[in-house]
Predict the structure.
Amino acid sequence: MPPPRGTPNIIEGPGDYDVTRTIHNDTYPAINPAQLDLSGKTVLITGGSRGIGRAMALSFAKGGASSIAVGARSDLSQLETDIYAAAKSEGRAQPRVLPLKLDITDEASVAASAAKIEETFGKLDILINNAGVLGEYGLIGDSDTKGWWDVFDVNIRGAYLVTKAMIPLLLKGDSSCRYVVSVTSVAAHLYNPTLSAYEISKLGLWKFSQLVNVEYASKGITSFAVHPGNVPTEIIGGKENLPEHHRPIFIETPELAGDSIAFLTSQKRAWLGGRYLNLTWDLPELLKREHEIVAQDKFRNKFDFALGTTNGLNNGISTGTA
Ligand SMILES: NC(=O)c1ccc[n+]([C@@H]2O[C@H](COP(=O)([O-])OP(=O)(O)OC[C@H]3O[C@@H](n4cnc5c(N)ncnc54)[C@H](OP(=O)(O)O)[C@@H]3O)[C@@H](O)[C@H]2O)c1
């Protein structure tokens, strides 16, 4: 479990403890990719060189995905070997693996990756916008202008460039099950000082993800956003360098997010479109609440302006001046 409720947690988000009775900090039997049949699926994971993206690639391999493209700026040769080993460990056929030298902020690099995927796989079924950066901590007035904007370049413009380039390939993919998953963050909900670029960019990425759904749901693409849990990866300085106040909080494993995404995208779940999910929530419990979530239009980014019946216009009080 994430830290017991009440643990001082400056990044506690809405619904962390309230949406499902059970919450997780590591993978669990119900989402074990060994139970999935991802054969025939083609997936692209951006930012797969380490951390959460790497775990996602291994989860898709264990789930039997046929074609796995992974993009990052670093060397991916070890990952390629690890993907083959992960598939083998579950008795799967060896997937086709496409390591891509990809900088998501460079439109030419993104275009080259799209061309390579088209040439090698001919289509894409699942895009995971996972690559992201945190930026430097600091008050807005003290921040370096370029460094602040660079966060948006990766987290927003990068996700936009990749999604834009991959949409034609997704439209050639499995028409019954096309996904764009964007890895946002609990930070989208937070107003903690000294991390403004990251918090705004992750909120923007969630809204971007909603708009992809609005524009492409009719073409069979389901786009949703996730918080992967609080994972002690390099983005936060690694496990060894966690500051004291982060130690009880950054306790999720990358496998939790990896297995959760493979599980969620293994079949059509169009109702997830436009929503934000925290992957520490128990997914079977969450899926059972589909009708309630849809009926109440939950987990979407919107301004809830409704006042109670004793307030404002509902009480006959005019707010106009005319
Ligand atoms: N860890 C957490 O607790 C946490 C919580 C909420 C959300 N997230 C989100 O989860 C995602 C993965 O983060 P992580 O925790 O796994 O961090 P990480 O270990 O630092 O991994 C970040 C990945 O993004 C890639 N990347 C960064 N800039 C890139 C660029 N311009 N082009 C291509 N790839 C780029 C990196 O690859 P190269 O450097 O090799 O290019 C790396 O593979 C991020 O979007 C992050 O915001 C993480």
Remarks:
- The first helix runs from residue 51 to 62.
